[in-house]
Amino acid sequence: MSKLLPPDDLIAQLARAGREAQRALGRMSHDAKAQALRVAAAALRKAEAEVLAANAEDLAAGEASGLSPAMLDRLMLDSWRLAAIADAVENVADLADPVGQEIERSTRPNGLVLSRVRVPVGLIGIIYESRPNVTADAAALCVASGNAVLLRGGSEAVRSNRAIHAALVRGLTAAGIPAAAVQLVPTQDRAAVGAMLTAAGLIDMIVPRGGKSLVARVQADARVPVLAHLDGINHTYIHAAADPAKAIQIAINAKLRRTGVCGAMETLLLDAQFPAAPAVVAALLDSGCELRGDARARALDPRIGPASAEDWDTEYLDSVLSVAVVDGLDAALAHIAAHGSQHTEAIVSEDETAVERFLSEVDSAIVMANASTQFADGGEFGLGAEIGIATGRLHARGPVALEGLTTYKWLVRGTGQIRP
Description:
Structural class: alpha/beta
Number of strands: 16
Largest sheet: 7 strands, parallel
Shape: globular
CATH superfamily of the largest domain: Aldehyde Dehydrogenase, Chain A, domain 1
CATH class of the largest domain: Alpha Beta
CATH topology of the largest domain: Aldehyde Dehydrogenase, Chain A, domain 1
Oligomer: single chain
Mean pLDDT: 94
Radius of gyration: 23 Å
């Protein structure tokens, strides 16, 4: 019946049910929530045939509609990837519960005892594209942090999302979690997204995961607080004192391990004094990566094409890489400041002073030294599944996992004090 409601009424109905479920979820113990997630992971494994069949239909539809190889890779599930999704749900169950954690405590001169403790945000709306794993990751993280969630996936993954959601809810409800704690918006009508964005007072926070146009629309139209990032225009700077073998290995992995993830390197900065620069670009080219460079980069290898002004500000999510030659650390920092999206940046160097200065001065959510930018992932950070990478400065930054899905409240304990 709810599918027949107008989008605003539908979202309001779902949100009210979610808020009611969240109150029940918020009273559950950590052990109860963790056990429910383990049962949900088992239900997801049991539904493998159902989920993969639904995903095959999504892939066929995506190929027919002309989805790019990178987008199809984000969409594709197989037995290994589905097992990894179930593993991620179980990993979240094993994490410490942030709810109720005391952040700080102090005693005022008048004897009042003040403390700040973590509490759930409430009802979180997740708007996402392509990646069906987000359905499971978001559900697990929200349940574990005591939040209800309203999921709105993209049309390209609609069948996969529904199959994953159905399996998870079977497991969660069997373990005592209210079904409305994890809801999937039952329509692909774009007006439902608008209704979510304007549901102030019903939805407490929106988290978008998807392409630039989706996130830009969310940030422009939302009347609900948004936790988001736009592009992952990530840089790797190979310093003059970089180890050539490390530089080659890191550059290839950062770009080509998976080109469609937001942690993929999109611009390579080569120090003009780095002697093995030709070897790095040759290794990338030989691995099948298209390079677009400035004049000095093109002089390193005739196979490098010219870079346009737009290339330095492009998240390719494909086997394409911008390359620039820079005159030292200052020039690298200036380039990143001008063109980076404050997502993830890395330096490769054996010079500790240069490394520490890079780590200190780059203003991004994640800054790395001598490591691939593809480590920009909540699981790799030991956070379990992640809801996304936040590049803003408020509330949470970097991989957003359990702690990023909490806020806090002040508790004041007195013994009869009154204010003079």
